Amino acid sequence: MDRVDRKEIYRSYWLFCFLLLLAAISYSNTLYSPFILDDYSAFINNKNLYLQDLSFASLKQLVKTRFGYARVIPIASFALNHYIGQGKSVVSYHVTNIVVHLLATISLAYFISGLLKTSAARNTLEFFRPAYFILAVCGLWALAPVQTNAVTYLVQRMTSMAAMFYFAACGFYIHARLAGKFLHRVFLYLMFLLAALGGFFSKENSFTLPAAILLVEFLCISPHLGAKLVRSIRWYHWLIFIVAALVVYPLLENYVNSTLKGFSARHFTVSERLLTEPRIVIFYLSLLLLPLPSRMNLEHDFSLSTSLISPPSTLLSFFFIALLFAAAVFHRKKYPLISFGIFWFFLNLLIESSFIPLELIFEHRIYLPSAGFFLVTVALLDNLLSRFDSGSDPQTKKVVFLLFIIMLSASSILTSLRNNDWRDKIALYRDSMEKSPAKARAVSNYAMALGKAGMYEECVTYGLQVQSLGVQGYEDYMNSANNILSCLLFQGKSKEAVEVGEKIRQDILQKDLEFIEAGSMRNYMFNLASAYADEKEYRKAFDTFQIALFRAPGDIQTYRAVNRMLLAAQNDEDGRKELVIGKELAEIPVKLAKIAYNYRQYEYMAAYLNDAIKLKADPAQVDPLNEKLLQTLEKNRIAARASSIRFNETFINNPLFRFYMKAVNYILRKYKPLRGATAGFLLKRAEKIDPENPFIQVYRSRWHLANGRIDKTVNELELFTETNKDFVPALELLVSCYQRKKNYEKSVAILSHILDIYHGHKQWANYQSFIYQYEDLNVETKRSPLDYY
């Protein structure tokens, strides 16, 4: 390496460091941006992230979040942020997000440097030197204003961290493939595996990584390998492929069917989503081309496509995307870098912009794909410049360099300006509302921010606006109802809150909605109950609080609210009559203990009974409840063991029986082609080992059901349950059959029996809801089946 080349490399390193500094400065005005939206559900209000220490036992609880293992790495980083700042400072969260963004930029540089080591990619460049090409792509990507949604929105660390590992994995793979020394290659492959695992445990969109590796291989490292493989394919290869596809298809079918069920909670269908996404992809491209803060939004309001020509831009978007794909395929040999960038962009939008029932559009989704866009942009610019200048004229280089400095500076300024919208909740939500005035969630979020800021009248005004925009029963509609009730209660307008709350409730009941967002419905019932309590309508308050508990049985805030309401009622003669309580303070924890029992909160019940004892409650009230609690816990323990095959003696001690039963269970749940004779054969083999095992009948009944023999299933189960009246798995299966045959009377009777013998069944709320819906309704409380949806 001569002195000039070494000097240029050093200069590029310094420029890259300056680029990282500029990126950090562009996000420096976000350090105190507040937590918003999903930040709360993902890590702020998630107690499993509150580490007491850094021991292995403490860290194990991180997989107990709703994300499980799938996003455990970013979840662990949130837990460490909370541990360091004790949940009081938002700064450490933002510093971590910025650092992850900078590391992702470094990983991208490493990845592109590997690409440019391949002859196919390197020969594509004619004007830019590799070091400056890397600088240009990474600079445009890191400073793109649209990335703010992935960096400043704290919960989207999952996105940026997944991208960081994704870039790194691709980079390690390319460098490993091109490495000359064996040990160096082994080390790089090991790093590739670690980075890939990091991506897989950061976010699910990392699952496209194997396809990205194939892109790298076939377009850049071994461009002729694909053609060789195609020429080497024989007829029997196709036969093997078809057989393998037929074997795998049922597994994919189950996954697709379970995924499609998620559309029941959306206001659009799967076909509408598939038709709309191409228009959204084109919009993403326009945001990258014209990255003005005025075009960016936390809550884009995008109209649905209902057909290829409604709106007409749907068909045009499909056509344009097809044109890009055709260009990438046609020019893959001459311009592999450009083709690679196009394929990369669409590949990494595939998961979040296809049939999965996610929200339609979010800017953070182009964080990883946009690397392909900027790769194509700079490669096209290189091709254009090379037509006028080979790169030897120093004046041309200076002009191009100056233009890039201007572009990066402009991007930095635009990023800072966009980040300024995130300075506080009101500013951010107002920005979204002004840009999407007809979108219910945008207005609802703004109303919520106004309410939390104490601007109650404005909150109510915008909350009522959401009532006309939102779809009844869905999240935005229910959130707006909560905003209205909360603000009226804060203003002391409990009477008005009752009137509004009852009107909303009646509107919902009269329309018999097919879907109600459960979490928001709980909050609505809580607020409505609080309004009743403030108006001294204690009976209504008591019943409505119980509906809130039915939806969130372990919510301690609701128990505390009930406690306050009971104390108020106890000091009111009418209240005591309504709730049938005396003047003794000890009666309140006794009543709370009964409530806790009804909602299967046994620890709460024990705590309330202890409180009653401390308050010198009458033993005649407390002792029977204590006895009832102990008996119920023992019955639950016995029923839980009897209901699970894992505790069955034969299943534990006989490996062959265990294999047969597990195989049948897997086939019945996930593999339709073998549900006939194969599953029947395995069941017979298991039955020979233990003919009297009660789980044999349950699995046989499931086998009959899977093969459409519902009458035979009912007959066998009815006969079996005559002598096994308390075997819960058989009873549950029989209920399922009765429900299919619309025999609700027998279903209710069996479910009531199940809850008698297994009070703490994990499905108790669903069973109780069904019972409430189909038994005679309680006239006094005027409960509706909808209350227990």
Explained architecture:
- With 789 residues, the protein is mainly alpha-helical.
- Among the domains are: 3-229, no CATH class; 427-552, Tetratricopeptide repeat domain (Serine Threonine Protein Phosphatase 5, Tetratricopeptide repeat, Alpha Horseshoe), CATH 1.25.40; 648-788, Alpha Horseshoe (Serine Threonine Protein Phosphatase 5, Tetratricopeptide repeat), CATH 1.25.40.
- It contains 38 helices and no strands.
- The longest helix is centred in the middle third of the chain and has 27 residues, at 394-420.
Q: What labels describe this entry?
A:
789 residues, disordered C terminus, Serine Threonine Protein Phosphatase 5, Tetratricopeptide repeat, single chain, mainly alpha
Report helical residue fraction.
over 70%
The computed structural class is mainly alpha
Radius of gyration: 31 Å
Average per-residue pLDDT, rounded, comes to 87
| Overall geometric form | globular
Main sheet record: none
Strand content: under 5%
Number of helices: 38
Distance between the termini: 73 Å
Quick summary of this structure?
This protein is an all-alpha fold and about 800 residues long.
Topology:
Blueprint: H1 3-26, H2 38-44, H3 56-60, H4 72-85, H5 91-115, H6 119-122, H7 130-142, H8 148-151, H9 157-178, H10 182-200, H11 209-221, H12 225-232, H13 235-260, H14 270-289, H15 313-330, H16 336-347, H17 370-388, H18 394-420, H19 425-435, H20 440-452, H21 456-469, H22 475-490, H23 494-511, H24 518-534, H25 538-551, H26 556-570, H27 573-579, H28 587-598, H29 602-614, H30 619-643, H31 649-653, H32 655-670, H33 677-689, H34 694-706, H35 710-723, H36 728-740, H37 744-757, H38 764-774
